[in-house]
Amino acid sequence: MSIRDKYYPWANSLSKEVSVNLATLFGLGKLAAPGTWGSAAGILLYPVIFKHCSLLEYAILAAALLYGAVGVCDAAERHLNQRDPGMINLDEFAAMPLCFISLFGDSYGIVGLLSGFAVFRFFDIKKPFLIDKAQSLEGGLGCVADDAAAALATAACLNICSLIWHLLS
């Protein structure tokens, strides 16, 4: 039994139209620089949904978003018959909230959001450390895992900067 059949059986029922529209964020993935557009759209999730959540609520919402993204991206990959095509940008969108997990209870303003965006795009494009290895996972899991890893690396950077800022203030 594949990971898809075991953990994402609902994704098998998604039509090509539904899965591709969701995975490309209703056409944003068809613009130039689709990952950048998906990331920019994902930033909006932070002030609208995540900013005032407790750490536990944040984790639950982020996990649910990533779970859904894996299933949708998997279905879109199968329908397109391509492995992690550039037009799929739901993975960046779903991963962006992970960038702003704050271990110090701070919420991020515009400077923090823009910094997180820039650092995330760097990690997503360059894929340093083991981020590139995450992309080799099966199906939609690999499509989303490298972005989640890039977002967690971004969160680590932002939290280190926040810690330094608090120590120097």
List the helices and strands and how they pair.
Blueprint: H1 3-7, H2 16-23, H3 34-43, H4 45-50, H5 55-80, H6 90-99, H7 110-126, H8 131-134, H9 139-168
Helix pairs in contact: 2-5, 3-6, 3-7, 5-6, 5-9, 6-9, 7-9
Summarize the structure.
The protein is mainly α and 169 residues long.
**Strand residues, percent:** under 5%
Number of domains: 1
- Please provide the count of β strands: 0
Distance between the termini: 54 Å
Major sheet characteristics? none
Return residue spans where pLDDT drops below 50 for at least 5 consecutive residues.
none
Q: What do the pLDDT scores average to?
A: 95
**Helical segment tally?**
9
**Which structural class matches the secondary elements?**
mainly alpha
Which range best describes the helical content: under 10%, 10-25%, 25-40%, 40-55%, 55-70% or over 70%?
Answer: 55-70%
Structure description:
The chain is mainly α. The termini are far apart. 69% of the residues lie in helices and 0% in strands. It contains 9 helices and no strands. The radius of gyration is 16 Å and the shape is elongated. The protein has one domain (3-168). The chain has helices spanning 3-7, 16-23, 34-43, 45-50, 55-80, 90-99, 110-126, 131-134, 139-168. Helix 2 packs across helix 5 and helix 7 (110-126) packs across helix 9.
